[in-house]
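The records we work with from here on pair a chain with its fold. These numbers are not coordinates but entries in a learned vocabulary of local backbone shapes. To see the layout at work, look at the sequence and tokens printed below.
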Amino acid sequence: MGWTSGSLRAPPAGYANVSIQEDMILTKRTTLSLCQFLDLFSQDVIHILFEKHNIRTRGYSQLEISWALPKADKIAVEALIDEIVATNGDLRNRVSPRYRFDERWEDFCKCMLLDGFKIKEKEVLRLEPVIEVIHPLEDDLTKEIELSSLASSDKIIQHIKLSAESFRKSTPDFNACLSHARIALETIVRDIACSHAFEITQDSKAWGKSLSHIKTVDFVTNKEEHAISSVYTFVSEGAHIPVGFTEEEFVRFGRNLAMAVCYFIIKKFNG
């Protein structure tokens, strides 16, 4: 990442100890959450922040900021986030009533967490090793689903969004988060099975039947079928939370696994 060692320090035990010379990859959701957070402040405050970090914008409305941030240099955005995290006490005092700050700050922190970054004690900690990518996996997944010919593409995208929203609630619904992620995965598999002449009947409506069918028609290998099935089981209700994980950490990890498998399947289908 582009942050100095003073802004992104080595994570404590339980967090990934990785190089900080990698770009931070943020989803569209997190970028928009940052725009909503910045909208709490006067144009003067935003202007100084943007000038300080060399971020160019035509104006300071939420819409104009949402155009500026994705085009800005990643290191500049990282530095902006670093300052926001380090000075959130001062920024909170600029907002009245305070609950408006608290609600937007909580949403931004949860969006960052979904992207693999934990805001803790005025620092940003990376939760997992870096995989070199240009775009966030979840954004790429959504694009691939939109490009596909799957009958339930809108439904799948909606479940992905509901999964994230369940995680971000003021009182998170972790069961719903994993449930929606699981439904997205099983719906992709069912639609692909149907595109390969699979007929869903009362006897064949179980998700495993669809998965077995796409293996039978050689869409996936035996190993790939096992991997998909294992992830589905991992994120199913009643899954045991491993020692060393908080429920929040486990759910985020499980959701990310499900999104990665969804991306693998849909990418293969579109290819």
